[in-house]
Design goal:
Shape: globular
CATH architecture of the largest domain: 3-Layer(aba) Sandwich
Strand order of the largest sheet: 5-4-3-12-13
Strand content: 15-25%
Distance between the termini: 44 Å
Helix content: 40-55%
Radius of gyration: 27 Å
Largest sheet: 5 strands, parallel
CATH superfamily of the largest domain: HUPs
CATH topology of the largest domain: Rossmann fold
CATH class of the largest domain: Alpha Beta
Length: about 475
Amino acid sequence: MKISVYNSLNKQLEELSPVRENEVKMYSCGPTVYNYAHIGNMRSFLFADLVQRVLRVVGKYDVSWVMNITDIDDKTIRDSAKNSPAWLNDMGEQTDEPKDNLKKLTEFYQDSFLDDIGKLGIDVEHFFALPCATDFIDEMQELIRKIHKNGYAYISEGSVYFDVNKWRKDDVYGKLFKIDFDNFRAGSRVDSDEYEKENASDFVLWKALKENEPFWEFEIDGVSCPGRPGWHIECSAMEYELFGLPFDIHTGGIDLKFPHHEDEIAQSKAGYGIEPTKYWLHNEFLEVEGEKMSKSAGNFFTLRDLESKGIDPLDIRFSMLSAHYSTKFNFTFQGIESAKKARKRVQDFIYDLLESDNKDGDNVDVEKVKLNIFEELANDFHTPKALAGLFGLINSTNPKSVSESSRIELLALMNDINHIFGIWDFGERPIEIIDIPAEITELAAQRWNAKAERNFQLADELRKAIDEKGYIIKDTKTEYEIIKK
RNA sequence: GGUGAUGUAGCCAAGUGGCCAGGCAGCGGUCUGCAAAACCGUCUACGGUGGUUCGAAUCCACUCAUCACCUCCA
């Protein structure tokens, strides 16, 4: 099925037409590994995952998905510096070698990142590569030399800058983000590094060495410039090395449109002479209970924070998929609760289908439903409409009274849908085994006896007592079950 | 100052001119001694004002409110 995507480059819905037929190369801006990922990061990763899954399952494309890991930047340097308060014991002992400390810190958070995305249902097997910036230093340097050779970069006090004004004479700067150069808040952010830029809109390609910071040797135009890469250059270099240019899809958070992605386009074209990406896809931000998420507001959550509150990461995944990626997502605890129940309803539907053995029940037009759901997904990844279609099916279908052929078809459909949503189980219905305190089982047994003696008043009192202690009794004809609230 | 958004029922969230979004909660019912779960049914909203139109949440104007981004934050 043809996939349509909203391309930030021209602000239009476009039918996806990859560089090579049947093959999609997709690059996603990944994490800077200086801390645990927060739910805002997760939305971006989950969006990228959704895109690549829809391309595979609905579009039948062969997808090569790359997500970079930024393991060298101001924050990783800051937090890995000697005697940094951000250093954790689990990272090991700090040494006098800045690069070594940097590695220890970034590897620690890289592991936690992989851990987190795994819990969110992102399958590491789906990645073509998860490259680290520091593994591409040579390639970045090569690109910087090319940009300089082509006349779009200058060296100043050991750093190398991209000359935006020069570039603007030959090409467009502002492809993703309309920039009013006359009103550019020039110098509004004072760079504490005190680098010497010629122009406020110029950006750094290579940063000069500072004392006690990690650095790599770099020679450019006969000048020795030990230092480290600027922020945007890693993406340009990796895309070129791993994919070749141009490639198909680039995803990222909307905040990265400018300057990160704008600069990336300029760099790649100024160095390699090729516009890097055909389709730019940006996901909107996330708010928490209607407010911007920030540490100071106390509404800043990492996945670990939420897990410790008893939230299942897959409910977060489902919750985020129930809104369209291009709208602001309002993360609320009530919303997670709502998502949990909705997800369970679908899960129960699947279990019911698996357990059903009705040989001559009703036939269901599964093909029609599948077409509808897939069309919605193919329409710029419209998960809310796809889910509406799915619930429409569930509402109109009794899984215990469908014909055997429909049952098989329905299971196949649910399985297909789950290849995208990735939140349902197709095994045996799990039997919840929980530790019930002896006190509770005793009360429950007493209640069962009271009930058998038709002493309902006592039975109700005991139910209430059990309820107050956090457990619920579910009766059937012949037995009862204790579940935790 | 510039740029880009948003405002839809108790909550979340689709919808861009006429036809049902959907989920959660609530309510009513079936079932149950009572419950729980499940299932069935139900709830009819579009910030405000004016306009265009046979008809507007949807188009236009004005207005109110909220938010984000503008050099390293997904």
